[in-house]
Hints:
Blueprint: E1 3-12, H1 16-26, E2 32-35, E3 39-46, H2 49-62, E4 68-74, H3 75-81, E5 89-91, E6 95-98, E7 111-114, H4 127-137, E8 149-153, H5 159-166, E9 170-175, H6 180-190, E10 197-201, E11 213-219, H7 222-232, E12 236-248, H8 252-260, E13 268-272, E14 275-281
Amino acid sequence: xxxxxxxxxxxxxxxxxxxxxxxxxxxxxxxxxxxxxxxxxxxxxxxxxxxxxxxxxxxxxxxxxxxxxxxxxxxxxxxxxxxxxxxxxxxxxxxxxxxxxxxxxxxxxxxxxxxxxxxxxxxxxxxxxxxxxxxxxxxxxxxxxxxxxxxxxxxxxxxxxxxxxxxxxxxxxxxxxxxxxxxxxxxxxxxxxxxxxxxxxxxxxxxxxxxxxxxxxxxxxxxxxxxxxxxxxxxxxxxxxxxxxxxxxxxxxxxxxxxxxxxxxxxxxxxxxxxxxxxxxxxxx
Length: 285
């Protein structure tokens, strides 16, 4: 049976502020934290031994002398272990994120998004995913969103694309990680939105020139968001909505200015803990 590889390392609390920026760059698919009295255990899962080893070497280079543990689990055992701590998450007073084994416990007052926890990033537990879903949820009260087109860049599990599709939009989810796309497709099927959203491996350069989207969501990292600004904006419908996240709070202004410099108005900046999201909209979408 295929395996999942986990890299585990422990840092003292004095190094905690350095961990999140490092992990957001080297483990954008997400990670686990187990807080102790004076230290924190960090655990990151990888589908391949080589990628796990590369990450482990990066950890040891960043914090020389710490112990890095590699654990191998069968995929089935790893997936089952999620059930010990995965709880529903509500986002934006509109959505509730649940795993399949809790789908029968959905809040009747919220729209359920059922996500199978796998390697792809996006279960609603990370603040950046929750912030994006809060921005998406606000579209529920906007007239005329049904039938609008969206782009979800860095789709991961497909959670943001699914949320948009459940509001009546149609669109495309892209990710550079080939392992993410089967997860996103499966989650789209489970949530009944396969006709509204398609998923593919790729980034902005796979779009047709002049192809426009009313809503673009990109939950990746600050560096790529800045680099991709000149590629993203030509595909945003005039007056459309742009939601950016995967951004540490102290990086928000720098990312915002990369897009303001290209002609967008100043965004609304949403903060949750040490993470932020930017919401650019000129027409109240």
